[in-house]
Design brief:
Elements (H helix, E strand, L loop, with lengths): L9 H9 L2 H8 L5 H4 L8 H13 L3 H17 L2 H11 L5 H8 L4 H11 L2 H19 L8 E3 L15 E3 L4
Antiparallel strand pairs: 1-2
Helix pairs in contact: 1-5, 6-8, 6-9, 8-9
Amino acid sequence: MGKKTLSNAHCLLDLIEKAPVSILKAFSGLPECQALARGFDWSQDEATLSPVLLEHVKHLRKEQRDPAEREALRVLRLASPRGSAILTTVADQLNDGELIAVFMSQDGGEIGRAVWMRTHSDEAARLFDVAESILNTGDIRGNKRLYDAFDVPCDDAPPLSGTTRSRRIWNRS
């Protein structure tokens, strides 16, 4: 029998390979990632935990693995250099010097800070969402033609069908 590989879980696998065990435990505590922690023994030796967790993920069903994959994608995007800078800027809104110090001292660098922001509290999770929105907005900025518009020159627009002719007006903003 061949080796089982995952083609649709690369973000989750990257997160498991890059993050320290303490970060992975916090990540698996998210409601979306409960299947990741279900049936897994976290008391194993930290040196061998990552390969065993990778094998555990490979045996999860797709519907159990997909929510954790989406969360891993969100975390890795905010752990990128640009995402990390945005997350650090947004973390200033915590308005608590001690919390900001805890945020900055997380194990695992950018990944640890992103997971901490996502899992620490509801307020921190809200700031995680704000940082993600800023990152996503930056991704689409500069794409001038996001859609094309058209106009039908009449008072009452006819129903759209394959035979309806319309004058196209391209959005050139």
